Structure prediction request, 655 residues.
Amino acid sequence: METHDFNFWSVLIAVLGGAIRVGTPFIFVSLGECLTEKSGRINLGLEGNLIMGAMLGYAISYISGSPWLGVLAAAASGCCLGLLHALLCQHKRVNDIAVGIAMMLFASGLAFFYGKPFIQPSAPRLPSIGFGDWSDSPVIRAALEINALFFFGAALAPLLAWFLLRTRWGNAVRVVGESSDAALAMGISINSVRLLSTMAGGALAGVGGSYLSLYYPGSWSEGLSSGQGLMAVALVIFARWNPIYCLYASLLFGAAAAVGPALQSVGIHWGYYLFNAAPYILTLAIMILTSDRRGTLGGMPGEFNK
Amino acid sequence: MLNLRETWFISLSALAVAFVLVGIFFASTGNSAMEVFYSLYRGAFGSWFSWQNTLVRAAPLMLTALCTVIPARVGLIVIGGEGAMVVGGLCAALVGLALAPTSPMIVIAGMALAGALSAGLWIAAVGALKYFRNVNETISSLLLNYIAIAILNFLVVGVLKDPATLNNPSTHAIGEINMIGNMGSSTVHWGLAYGFLVCVGLWILCRHSVFGFAADVVGGNLRAARLAGLPVAKTLLWCCFLGGAAAGLAGMLEIAAIHGRANNSLNAGYGYAGILVAFLARQNPLAVIPYAVLLGGIQASGGLLQRVHELPDAAVYVIQGIIFMVILSSELFYGKFKWLQGKLDQGKT
Prediction:
């Protein structure tokens, strides 16, 4: 039983470290989705952006030798996929949810298609900073290995909040999301605002994908993403369309996803698959608890009520 | 709404456009588009052997497509076919194992009932969450897919594991004698007939029953449905239940006709391809049948594309994705062509 106590602490530390390590892609995807949804459109296809970003980021990093170039390429690919989504959804009769599902299928298919040659080779990874080097404990050292992209994402959240609240462009995004009629009256081009928001959101999701293949789990394979792009949609609802809350929620999801591997690392194999489902169960529970029968949530862009 | 001419014309044109795009895609990979199409045709419909291959895949696709089609009648976009299929298959296998010592008839009936009932309730839960808590049905049904697969994996590597299945953890087998056989001398199992009958049955329900009419009203205008005193909650939950039950039956058939035991091959992607079939069929249960055969054919030809053209197996996903997007974009053209409108629709916008 004594060893059990020790296990508890190492599991806790591993989970906290995992919150950052596993949560980082969530930060990017959820901020991207948040921006897109603020403009009054749901992009369910971010899962595809994520997978495409993971593949392209890895491939470019392998070919060029620079992981940061890979991240850029991933962002660019996400941008293009966002553009495609926005162009298809411009028309009233085309359902954005359905297009999202189609984009997910298309982008992941394309990524698997072109990604085949990159499953074997190993590409240069993104560097990380060891904040735990002062410690002798390998558990702490592993938990405090933090990737540079995390800081980028953590800085992006307040930046996006500031952008949405305090800048002219941010206000345009919010007006379009709150009421397309008001936007029309103000002379804001609804389609261009949504186009740019979806493209920027898609680019962020692509960056999140490159983190998956270039840092953690850290190589390209077809089973790399397990629905993070879709969970981000739920996460944004949970975060009440607030970028700062998106950051916290992403860390919470990261922690939930880290429970299974953390338990396995201390030799508890029972229920591995169940613990792996923790983020999905958490998402569902949160959605049930935070939804409201009347359908109006604080912070929800008004266009979703139409 | 009942304009068949317009639907057929636009759907087929969209398919043609999609195949041109697919051709351009394959040409860009350095293959001859025509040769790839020929292989696609050969692998899907070129011989009796490939036809059988196609039809074996079409059977579960018909049923998983219904999981999106029937809830769509009340205006819900449910994409939980994969999870419903897993739950249905798992429960069917459990009941099949429990009933195995009795007669094959009872085993099959019990399995079908268990599969349909469990998966029906699984998707009905999605509908209930939507109705009572306003939880987005698309996301909740998708999350349930992952949860269903986790439960399946948890059980087949744990308490339900047959120790003899080392490499691919599975439950015990339900026994050869309890399996659903093939139709005649073909390699196509009777599940195809099940799928066909369920599609036709649900089409009749949707088109020619009070229930189907109520569902269309609920889907078309919720407030009107409430004002007319229609049982909104009941209609919505039943539609979700029926859709889920169809997908559950697909899972049961995979167990009872092909695998003989529940394992990871239950989540082979039929649920996701079923979503595409549903949108191709424009949420019409009868139109699901030909499109399921088409999609089954594309999937069946994947192997040939790999062997002959050395294309990765993901080529099939790319084809599906392109078709899906073109079909969705084709929604734009409904009502745009005067000469396609039937007399009924003249004068309306």
Q: What stands out?
A: The longest helix of chain B spans residues 104-133. The interface with chain A takes residues 77, 79, 129, 132-136, 138-140, 142-144, 146-147, 150-151, 153-154, 157-158, 272, 275-276, 279, 311-322, 324-325, 328-329, 331-332, 334 of chain B (CB under 8 Å). DSSP finds 14 helices and no strands in chain B.
